[in-house]
Amino acid sequence: MNTSSMPQQKALSEELRTLLDDPRGHRVRDDAETVRAFSRDFGPKHDDALPRAVVFAESVGDVQAVAAYAHQRRLPLIARGAGTGVSGAVNATDGCIVLSLERMNRITEIRVDDEVAVVEPGVINGDLGDAVAPYGLMYAPDPASYRQSTIGGNVATNAGGLRCAKYGVTRDSVLALDVVLADGALIRTGRDTFKGVAGYDLTSLFVGSEGTLGIVVGVTVRLRYLSTSQESISALFPTIADAAAAVLEMGRRRVQPAITEFLDAGTMEVIDASFGTRLAERGGALLLVRTDGFGAEAEAGVVRAALSDGGGQVSEPGDEFAARLIEMRRASRGDTQDDDYRVGEDVAVPRSRLVSYIHHLSEIATRHEVRLRVVAHAGDGNLHPTFWVSPDGGEEALGRLNAALDDSVRGALEAGGTITGEHGIGQFKRRWLSWEQGDRVVELQRQIKHVFDPHGILNPGKAIV
Amino acid sequence: MNTSSMPQQKALSEELRTLLDDPRGHRVRDDAETVRAFSRDFGPKHDDALPRAVVFAESVGDVQAVAAYAHQRRLPLIARGAGTGVSGAVNATDGCIVLSLERMNRITEIRVDDEVAVVEPGVINGDLGDAVAPYGLMYAPDPASYRQSTIGGNVATNAGGLRCAKYGVTRDSVLALDVVLADGALIRTGRDTFKGVAGYDLTSLFVGSEGTLGIVVGVTVRLRYLSTSQESISALFPTIADAAAAVLEMGRRRVQPAITEFLDAGTMEVIDASFGTRLAERGGALLLVRTDGFGAEAEAGVVRAALSDGGGQVSEPGDEFAARLIEMRRASRGDTQDDDYRVGEDVAVPRSRLVSYIHHLSEIATRHEVRLRVVAHAGDGNLHPTFWVSPDGGEEALGRLNAALDDSVRGALEAGGTITGEHGIGQFKRRWLSWEQGDRVVELQRQIKHVFDPHGILNPGKAIV
């Protein structure tokens, strides 16, 4: 085998085709359109780096062969799912190979009585949900991108979603992983049972590691019961403070909704524009709540009372519009693809700090003269403020935007929160990671990275600092 | 500072007393009674190793000082909570210092609106539950030892309990950890928010690592809502197979009890002997089920129907005896302290394999002429078979007992299960760990251990191989 460390573009693709027995280039592509399309995720990209080749893996063997090749040649290797992330975690870096796992999209097993499924990494989140629904089961993690994003990508970012406060995040549903290590070796972590404590929790270590420790090629997930009854409630409040206070009041009444979404006036305007609703003229903040399970109706009653006592205009029992609003909220993601001038943030704060933090965000927006709207998974304190400026403002406007972002992240940390609730560090949040983590934690993570990937080929420059 | 690597017993205690400014020996003890009492956990101990000193830490600073000292002198250091484990995880090894965290037992903070508590490691599990109950909150993980065991010990073993199927294990309730590393440095992992994905999940790595990666000195936990309504159901079945089938049938009806305990005839006899009940004469297996939350009553109705359809003699709604039976089951642990001739196992299998696996256990007991009884957290497939032989049988009987244990563990793995559901590897399960884990996983764990503890001082010979 040729051991030159940096083969030319064509030579590299040819080598990969030979390696994968793919003479016609079905799995190894290097045309301009493909390399551009696979050079980034849904967020902004600040450079022109392109992959030297894109490999569409169709088997575990493909992944092992490409990893071993990249390991030997010291070539950066970026595994990706559907690329729906927004933190730059799969953005191409100089000289990299991109490894797409989209074609590994089989649901390998659904074990109904065990309430477990085994999937390849390229399975779309919503497709798994559809496949298990006839059995009365669900795959709980439901990022807003659930109709596009893959389970493998969800694992890489430890994706959250709307139902997390009740059903947990991706990590809480992952029992076992098949992982290809940097050198091409295949390992299995975790177990097929709900409980198990043998050895260190390598499964959780891989979940959320953004492809920097290994490449997930198989995921064993725990399924939950699909509720046959659910109640959706909407409540419009005069002010943001009223709505945030109502979230705490629901908690004080010890009811755990499956979904608790907070939308400010700006977010209501987006929904109004997309769906022809007229929400924004009716109030300053909107809460959308869903209860489910055997207690759905009783819980909904408690929720409605709490929201009404808190000054909300609350939907009537059985109101179908409330349910539709939740679907509109889910679907409202696509309209806000980030670019350099519009950045969707993803911080989390302790729930009791929601009011003061949203107030703080408004101050930041005013101070830096940037626009702001806020949506939040209020049940777990996870906020998505979107800041934007007019592109006409050029560099000066970008400076104000970035200053606002810095302040918003600093504020979240000062409130006892985190710089990322569910989107991950990727490329863009690395600048803030050392604000959250101590030097020794940073150093331990580097050492763990070195254990798994001694040559640093796996998604370099992402996830940790 | 004296750098001799193995100071004599008295010299070592004196040095520790000087180090901790404890001239009277309140915190540093080396008397025979103390070193013997702190040389083991609740399980058997196969050697006479005693600690050279026992340090009762009263502050994070104490822990840091002792760790730094042990690190510098290359002395084995074993941190422990209440010592209620049964896998030998805190058993003394030659030349070790034992570091008890029992005195660090303050509940530092209860943040009601955030549904979070911060505790020192020595807080008793049940004491935290008592402290948060007035707020309508609970700390969900409830190992049978919850009145004796500490949160720190629960974290070290990733303890389970009765409520796991619905509320998760210890890992699922831990948000952040303060950890003293092997060299005495203090780090903080995780975050105070329910969600957060910044960096690698070091929190989960420490949870369940049995004191081999660091010493947990602070735990931030998520609290759950304490249900105001709960329903307890008991059902006696003619055979074990009937009871196990009924567990699956409850699942098929998509009801998620908080507790689902399975007891065989032998376990019923233990309860009968302890509490004067007459369960064993009425059936061959017992299921104890508890539903909670807003849907408790509706769920209990579904449960009763499923159990009755499955041939169970089911308790009436509101039957207080069913609730008392669950408390008897919890309290029945103490009578079975393990010794060389009686070993309580802790395997887990996929739920659909419960029937065949329990049948397999009976075959094993018959083949090796050992006694057997089985209790299981049936909702998550976690079984505790207890095997025993008469001490009169001597070495020959011990040989049969160990052969039965080996077969039971092998059988659990063949059924797709794990060698430990919630007790941990400790000393005793290391002989089976490589049956479950591949060579590369074993090696990765060793490398991770080396990152955190380069001199191998932290609880050597435990948790991994």
Keywords:
homodimer, 465 residues, alpha+beta, Uridine Diphospho-n-acetylenolpyruvylglucosamine Reductase, domain 2, Uridine Diphospho-n-acetylenolpyruvylglucosamine Reductase, domain 3, Alpha-Beta Plaits, five-stranded antiparallel beta sheet, 16 helices, disordered N terminus, FAD binding (chains A, B), EC 1.1.3.15 (chains A, B), FAD-linked_OxidoTrans_Type4 (chains A, B), Glycolate oxidase (chains A, B)
Count of the domains of chain A: 4
The count of β-strands of chain A is 19
Helix run count of chain A: 16
Tell me the β content of chain A. 15-25%
Structural class of chain A: alpha+beta
Low-confidence stretches of chain A: 1-6
Ends of chain A: how far apart? 34 Å
Largest sheet of chain A: 8 strands, antiparallel
Percentage of residues assigned to helices of chain A: 25-40%
